[in-house]
Amino acid sequence: MQVRVQQEAFDLGVEAAGFAAAQSDMGAVVTFTGIVRDGAEGGMVAMEIEHYPGMTQKALEEIAAQAVRRWDLGDALVIHRYGRLGRDEMIMMVATAARHRRAAFEAAEFLMDYLKSRAPFWKKEIAADGAEWVAAKDEDEDALSRW
After folding, report:
1. pTM higher than 0.90 for the full model?
2. Tell me: domain 2-145, CATH 3.90.1170.40, correct?
């Protein structure tokens, strides 16, 4: 299991290929990558993501370990960026490996729902005319509640 909270961009192809190549006796590898998109109001030029390094790393490690145990994963990878990210930049990646596809998909969805709603990151959308902190959304909490 690997969790990385980093400012640097990552190469999706390299990360996915490396993760898949490291698996043994797994029947499924699932990956998901989140990309910064324009906010609800439009006009966003960037997103600023802040976090408390020790707290964030520990929280993500705990939830990844929970996913590994719950779905009996062979492995899991979570990468989440912070700092100023422009539109269309990759913000995060989740990869899971399991003997069967259902477990790999469900574990990946669980991790994504957690990252979207509970991970200790604070996001600010920056537009040409100002900036605004992103508020929690009910649908994100609802998605997490199914687990």
Report:
1. yes
2. yes
